[in-house]
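Notebook, bench 3.
Goal today: get a predicted structure for Chalcone isomerase-like protein from Marinobacterium mangrovicola so we can plan the truncation constructs. The sequence was checked against the plasmid map this morning, with no discrepancies at the termini. Length recorded as 172 residues. Pasting the sequence as submitted so the record is complete.
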Amino acid sequence: MSVYRVNSGFRVCLIIALMSLGLSASAQTRYPQGLEQVGQARLSLLWLDIYDARLFSPDGAYRAGEAPLLLELTYHRAISSEELVEETLSQLEGRVDALAVPRNRLNKLLPSVDDGDQLAFYLSPDGRGAFYFNREYLGELENSDFNRAFLDIWLAPDSDYPELTQQLIGKE
């Protein structure tokens, strides 16, 4: 009789644990909600509009090094997956150790985009990064150093586009 109770109790605990894993996994794949816009900016090169960028935080304020943050990029032109990955890697040079860059994972995660498509990156409080395409979950990166460096392409004081950075972080 006591063996049955132990096995029965174990089964109940196992079922609860598996259910909670399923709930937390699905919660991580949902598009982030409840964030307020910090700032927005448009990246244009010469006469070509590339994308509109918007940054979100829990209270609509940007504090360097704090998370969660959501960066949304809405594209104004078609860009291939290969171009996105190459430009990302180019922008990351000097920001993160080359060994920390998950090139193969980026090749699998980043899709080609067309005019009107949205690519978003969410940095969670625990440093995980999740990509979304048109609000649909693409996948996650666990390397917090890479994830922070990825956001720093847009948010670092020494970014390639300082005016865009200032607009995104709500300073202009």
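The radius of gyration is 20 Å. Residues 2-29 form the longest helix (28 residues).
Flagging this for group meeting.
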